[in-house]
Structures are given as C-alpha cells and as structure tokens.
Design a protein that fits this description.
Blueprint: H1 5-18, E1 22-23, E2 39-40, H2 60-75, E3 81-85, E4 93-97, H3 99-120
Antiparallel strand pairs: 1-2, 3-4
Length: about 120
Amino acid sequence: MPTSKNTWKDLERRICKQFGGKRNPLSGSNSGHGTSADCIDVSSEFEKFYFEIRLRQNWLHHNMFKEDVEKPARKENKIPILVTHKKYSKLDSLVILRLEDFVELVKNRSNNQGKNKKNIE
C-alpha cells in the first residue's frame, strides 16, 4: 500500500525537529537551501551531518536490531548499537542505533566539549 505524502513529510518534520532544525521543503537540487538533505537549519551539534530520512513498512536491520542487540543491551543497561559490514569490503561498515540515543550522545559530547573549553581558559 502506498504511503501518503503527508505521512513521510510529517516524519521528516518530527525527526528534523529533534536535531533543532526543520524539514527541507524542496529537498533536492531545487531547494534553494544549498543542500539536498532532508533537514536544514539544524542546531550546531548536528551541523556536520547530512540527514536523509526514509520510511518503509519493514527493514531487515530493524528486526535484527530489536532481537539481537536491543534486548541484551537493555538487560545490561547499555546503549544498543548494531554495526553491519559488507562482505569483502574494507570501508563499508554502518552503525545503527536508536535516534534518541544518537541525539543524546551527540548533545552530551557537545556539552562536554564546551565544559572542557571553559576549563582550559
């Protein structure tokens, strides 16, 4: 069943908001924002990231993450991270983690860097 435009546009808006930004209304070369990324005007912690947001009913790595990584990680009170790697490739590994965990990790890192700069001065 096809997904309505409003469904994926709303998803993009919600996710971009978590990065302090907004949805690129015309993502692609015609956007006039200097990027084809789905999120624009993100907060400084996320300005080096290029966001592409995709919606599907089912992703294999979602199932793998939930069963093989998230359940045991939560039992140990750790942040679940799945790393996948393409066979026979040296530089083709991907890191998969929950969006909320990613946002928290980046914000904490930025906050700690700001504290370190103040301590040095």
